[in-house]
């Protein structure tokens, strides 16, 4: 029975002329032609849907995936920085403490006369003759004020070396620069000219 029906459809299709197709009367088309037409329409819809919908979605998906990779990279960098934040804070605290210690070694204006007295005492205790110990003009730097002190003393090499060592051992920061040594007529006596520099912290109001 099924074979007979199928044979009838085939015979109908063979006897049908494509020129007889009437788009306004699709119901009169042979069954196989109608099925083929619907299949063709379905395939066209799939292809059209892919190019006009799915293809566009794939482009958007690729863009979103690229954005995801970028965000992951940014997250990893920020996570790395966050992991280092605690050690950096600890290091900052240690640096502030060290800075406080160094700052305490910088003399205030009122302490400079005491520093000059200490230098004079070091010279006298080491048996030197003091020609002059004079405070020079201040020199402003970016974060501190430099206070040069011109020193001229006379004595033996041993006493001069002991004086320099004593100055370097003062509790305040003092650096020594530009020294010259000349011999007097008495070969055992030398005259030394040297510049000692101490420093004070420059405050936020013009370095005063």
Can you give me a brief rundown of this structure?
With 208 residues, this protein is of the alpha+beta class. It is 55% helix and 21% strand.
Account of the 3D structure:
With 208 residues, the chain is of the alpha+beta class. It has 2 domains: 1-104; 109-201, 2-Layer Sandwich (Alpha-Beta Plaits). It has helices at 2-15, 31-104, 112-125, 157-168, and strands at residues 129-135, 139-140, 144-155, 174-183, 190-201. Mean pLDDT is 77; it is low at 204-208.
Task: Present the secondary structure layout.
Layout: H1 2-15, H2 31-104, H3 112-125, E1 129-135, E2 139-140, E3 144-155, H4 157-168, E4 174-183, E5 190-201
Antiparallel strand pairs: 1-3, 2-3, 3-5, 4-5
Oligomer: single chain
Radius of gyration: 49 Å
Instruction: Determine the mean pLDDT.
Output: 77
Q: Which term fits the overall shape?
A: rod-shaped
Secondary-structure element series = HHHEEEHEE
Kindly give the count of domains. Answer: 2
Strand content: 15-25%
Which structural class matches the secondary elements?
Answer: alpha+beta
The helix content is: 40-55%
Number of helices: 4
User: Number of DSSP strands?
Assistant: 5
Question: Largest sheet, if any?
Answer: 5 strands, antiparallel
Low-confidence stretches: 204-208
């Amino acid at each position: 029975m099924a074979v007979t029906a199928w044979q009838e459809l085939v015979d109908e299709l063979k006897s049908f002329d494509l020129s007889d197709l009437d788009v306004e009367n699709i119901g009169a088309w042979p069954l196989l032609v109608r099925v083929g037409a619907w299949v063709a329409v379905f395939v066209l819809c799939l292809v059209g849907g892919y190019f006009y919908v799915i293809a566009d979605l794939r482009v958007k998906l690729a863009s979103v995936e690229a954005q995801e990779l970028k965000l992951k990279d940014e997250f990893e960098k920020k996570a790395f920085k966050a992991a280092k934040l605690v050690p950096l804070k600890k290091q900052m605290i240690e640096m502030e403490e060290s800075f406080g210690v160094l700052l305490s070694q910088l003399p205030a204006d009122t302490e400079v006369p005491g520093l000059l007295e200490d230098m004079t005492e070091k010279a006298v205790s080491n048996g030197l003759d003091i020609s002059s110990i004079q405070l020079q003009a201040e020199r402003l730097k970016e974060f501190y004020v430099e206070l040069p002190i011109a020193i001229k003393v006379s004595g033996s090499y041993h006493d001069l070396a002991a004086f320099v060592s004593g100055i370097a051992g003062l509790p305040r920061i003092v650096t020594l620069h530009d020294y010259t040594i000349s011999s007097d007529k008495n070969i055992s006596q030398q005259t030394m000219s040297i510049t000692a520099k101490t420093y004070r912290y420059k405050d936020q109001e013009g370095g005063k």
